[in-house]
Amino acid sequence: MKHLLSSHDLSVDEIVGILDVADHMAEINTRSLPKVPALRGKTIASVFFEDSTRTRLSFETAAKRLSADVMTFMASSSSLNKGESLRDTIETLSAMGVDAMVIRHKSSGVPLTMTQWTDAVVINAGDGWHQHPTQGLLDAYTVTREFGTKDSLSGRSIAIVGDIKHSRVARSNIDIFRRLGAHVVVVAPPALLPKNIESWGVEVRNTIDDVVGEVDALYMLRMQLERMDSSIVPKLTEYCALYSLTPERAARMGSGAILMHPGPINRGVELIVDPTDVPGSRILKQVTNGVNVRMAVLFTLLGSGATTVLQQGGES
Amino acid sequence: MKHLLSSHDLSVDEIVGILDVADHMAEINTRSLPKVPALRGKTIASVFFEDSTRTRLSFETAAKRLSADVMTFMASSSSLNKGESLRDTIETLSAMGVDAMVIRHKSSGVPLTMTQWTDAVVINAGDGWHQHPTQGLLDAYTVTREFGTKDSLSGRSIAIVGDIKHSRVARSNIDIFRRLGAHVVVVAPPALLPKNIESWGVEVRNTIDDVVGEVDALYMLRMQLERMDSSIVPKLTEYCALYSLTPERAARMGSGAILMHPGPINRGVELIVDPTDVPGSRILKQVTNGVNVRMAVLFTLLGSGATTVLQQGGES
Amino acid sequence: MKHLLSSHDLSVDEIVGILDVADHMAEINTRSLPKVPALRGKTIASVFFEDSTRTRLSFETAAKRLSADVMTFMASSSSLNKGESLRDTIETLSAMGVDAMVIRHKSSGVPLTMTQWTDAVVINAGDGWHQHPTQGLLDAYTVTREFGTKDSLSGRSIAIVGDIKHSRVARSNIDIFRRLGAHVVVVAPPALLPKNIESWGVEVRNTIDDVVGEVDALYMLRMQLERMDSSIVPKLTEYCALYSLTPERAARMGSGAILMHPGPINRGVELIVDPTDVPGSRILKQVTNGVNVRMAVLFTLLGSGATTVLQQGGES
């Protein structure tokens, strides 16, 4: 494993391995000095062609806790405005001596294409509708640790609700959840389902009411309000009537069932309930786990030693 | 003292204690290696919903000299543009494992409200017209060290000139200066005085000419040019005639009297004189002291040991 | 040598000395832990009044590899928008305790002017049409190391093609290349040559075809597309006919001849050929050398010891 471009590149053993390393990172993050020298001297570049403060800060925090140096490149302030090609930009950053690039781009496949242009490790932090593999991993970490079922989601059911068609989060999560053994249900208006949904190995249901009381995890996707304006999508009130989580629906969640969301939340759209009023909400736990899992990904791809080096503390 | 939200939260002993710690920091900043490992492994987030490069860099410099990691969050590049609530933003940053948040926001009371949403230490770096407590502390540090009167401003008079009504700096400084024993005079057009100014324990004068030759410190506030356009404020020329510091007025300052300003200066408005031509100007000294005092605040709120740890050098 | 404002400030011995230090830095950058503690505790501020992600990241990477702290100040997010003077900005940053300022500004002479306002070391990272001395140094490093002629370019010919008149890169490079002994040829439309070109000690040729097969190094300048719209400059198609590097022209480059460009490339303008198809292209090598040379400049201006301190590794 040289890069992390897609959940599909990872075997189940590799997924389980990363989640195990994330357990070490979670322990580090509870220390009074939550920092280890594992990646000292490495330079990790955030290369964001789409704005995402949340994901960028999560990766950069992870990098700093491993004592790596961070270089932040945001497209809006870059030479791309002056007509430089994407290839030139990537090759230039690479020539400065970057060990890994964490990239977000609005077009599917850009991280894969980048690997032709750089010797650095490439980590996909979201490309178009395609993939967001660290989100899939952090969510798998969240559900397995929540349910105490480390290497497996066998016998567990997870419903993913919202705009499946345009969601890279849905693609990464469905793949990982299924291969860990979960039964995955998707709930979306027909216009927001991909055409080949039959081939994804998921069950399709028509409204959140069909699943809210049954599943072990309810995963609400962020609704892109922009799409609401287009004619193919139902109007907001119609959408909310069938697909939003309301206080009434949240009250019907099973005891022990958890609520998840990749953030940022669109309050009043997919979540009409305040998540702090939902005892099963693990939305903030996902954020905390995001740092643990991204530390694990960076360490797995860039670290030279076994996890015993993570025992060292104090030095940073 | 868990947070620093307002000057009013601090007892006189606590104020004097922070200024004493700032003396240690001033010593560190004269070393050839001005850095100590006191906050190694801590993460300090700058959370700025209003642009202020000056204050942000001062805090971030302070944090780095204490070997903390810094995370910068600026609202303009954030999810708030996508409809995420302030609460979600704060909870998300907090869930990433932040030890302290330094916040600036245009609305009074936001830092206090934030303390409900995070376990991190919250430091108010300016909220609306309300408070800017580290400015009050660094200004108190500047005047006490200037006058050699460490724990007291007894017998000293300080005039604050300008838009008192809309100034968080005025509110923090008047409170701290008075409780350290200073006689505080405010000089402002009636429209730029708060309605309850009588209850503030200050003397009110009508023009800078009434005070310039008498006070030990002349504190010029930044004039918000935006307000000049509104009908309640006198026109710029009328304002300058009564309230600006001109070369003639500066020449009338007492020997030993000092000139202060929180920055950034509006040249040609509140300062018509070039401050580098005023021997008593301590405006740049305030900037230097700002780093010392913010190191002291961060150390007091986040450090685990006594100031003896500040003797250690070389390790960073 | 206190500052680095212009190539003209450097003696040939000083130029050669910096390039020698850059050899040490190149060695450091091949280590598995490419970091040395040479500038630990120093604060280096990037002060960019013109956007240049490439140059800024090159300097900041160089600073971090020497273990310095970095402070980034970009004018668009600064108080200058509020009417603060340039002098106040520089004095304020300086008062925070900055050891060096790396400045880019659209006006010639600003870095020199700044030296009146700060005790910090000032490094010119490009000022108007005037100078870009670290570009000249990194390009001299690239050609001398490429040709294996460490201290000299005697007997070598270098053609610089494009908008000489408005180019700070041309001014710095011509000066350094010539003083190291190179024969320098400039190729440009008459309207893009400075009026006093005769006094520059260079040969003037009329089209790239006159030089492409003869010179040891072909240095293509970035064409500012904005200027193409103005009436004094030939239309783009006419310009390209005489001055762009096409695949046909690239094929006529001598064996051993190298292609250089300061970046960012305007593909389809000065380079119609894809540089990755030109075996002699050293464009990415320039980027790598940029980090080495900027480390050497920072170390030379801020380091306190001999280069023996660069032998130390592992500590950062």
Identify the notable features of this structure and list them briefly.
globular, Rossmann fold, four-stranded parallel β-sheet, homotrimer
Structure description:
Chain A has ten helices and nine strands. Chain A is an alpha/beta fold and 316 residues long. The first copy, chain A, folds into two domains: 7-131 and 290-311, Rossmann fold (3-Layer(aba) Sandwich); 133-286, Rossmann fold. In chain A, the strands form two sheets. In chain A, strands 7-6-5-8-9 form a five-stranded parallel beta sheet, covered by helices on one side. In chain A, strands 2-1-3-4 form a four-stranded parallel beta sheet. In chain A, helix 1 crosses helix 5. The longest helix of chain A is centred in the last third of the chain and has 20 residues, at 283-302. The first copy, chain A, is globular. Chains in contact: A-B, A-C, B-C. The interface between A and C is medium-sized, with 24 and 30 residues.
